[in-house]
Every structure is written in structure tokens, then in C-alpha cells.
Amino acid sequence: MSKRKFSVSHLKGSKFKADGLRAFFEYRDLGVRDATGGRAVAHVIRARPGGTFVGKTHWHETEFQLVYVLKGWIKFDYEGVGEVLLEAGSCAHQPPGIRHRELGHSHDMELLEVVLPADGVVKVPDHLSDEEAAALPCAAVTAWHALIVGGGL
User: Fold this and answer.
1) How far apart are CA 150 and CA 152, in angstroms?
2) Count of C-beta atoms within a 10 Å radius of residue 25
3) Which end of the chain is more exposed for a tag (fewer CB within 10 A), N or C?
């Protein structure tokens, strides 16, 4: 059994950093990754002043992902669901692998995101179009099939 650590993060003294997945957001790590040995990550994400918004279709290889809006609003388009507007107090569970795209957010948007495992979020390379990014899971399955089934690994 792995040892669990207690963790607390206070706003006072905490810093938001512009080193996350999206250049137009700032991220405040809540210390959950270290406390859980990488089993989960939790952070507060907020709109970055002056950040240029770019919404690309993507997905996350996760076991669990929850988004809770603390302030402002954010709008997504989810495959098989359609457009969803999340406002302060809204909570969304994004099932593993659901393709989605952010459509926009308010300048004061702030949300809490919890993801399992901690490294389960996949960034779509900027040079790929939505169509190219959407084909990546197919390429991964094709490679797996070739190695495991065809190659006997």
C-alpha cells in the first residue's frame, strides 16, 4: 500500500503560472499530484489576461475528469452532446476520450479541474488541424494492432 500524504493549498502565497496546456490560461497547482504520487492532479485554471484564445478539438486519455466553474463562464462543444455552457456553479464530468472543443470563455473565467491519472491530459500539437488530431487514436490503434496482433509482442 502506498503512503498517502496530507496536502493543503491556500490562495494566499500561491502563484498562477502560464505553463499549462493552454497558453491563454494560467494554472495554480493544488499539490494533489505530489500528495497522491501522481494518481490525480487538481488545479485552478483561469483566463490569462491578454491570452489569445484558440479552440481545437481534442480528447484526454483519463480515467476521470471533472470541471467545476468557480467564476465566469466557459463553453464547449462535446462530440455526441453538442454545445454546453458552464457558468459559475456548473459541474461537468467529461468521460474518458470524449472529443471536445472549447468555443470560448469569459475574461474572468476560473475553474477547478480534477483529473485521474495526473498525466492523463493530452495536448494536441499546434500544427495539427482538428481533422488530423481526430485521426490520432486511429493511428495508435493501428500501431498497437500491428505490434501486438501482427508482430506477436
Assistant:
1) 6
2) 21
3) N
Cα distances from 114 to residues 31, 32, 41, 104, in angstroms, run 12, 9, 6, 20
Structure-block grid coordinates of residue 132: 488530423
pTM for this model (two decimals) = 0.74
How far apart (Å, rounded) are the C-alpha atoms in residues 62 and 25?
21
What does the buried/exposed string (b/e) look like for 81-94 if buried means 16 or more CB atoms within 10 Å of the residue's CB?
eeeeebeeeeebeb
Instruction: Give the three-class secondary structure for 11.
Output: coil
9-56 per-position pLDDT tens digit: 999 989 998 877 778 899 999 999 999 999 999 999 999 887 777 788
**Closest to 85 (Cα-Cα) out of 66, 99, 106:** 106
User: Cell digits for 105?
Assistant: 470563455
Q: Which run of H or E residues covers position 24?
A: none
What is the C-alpha separation between 48 and 55, in angstroms, rounded?
15
CA distance 75 to 69: 11
Question: For residues 71, 122, 6 and 9, what is the CA-based torsion angle, rounded to 10 degrees?
Answer: -30
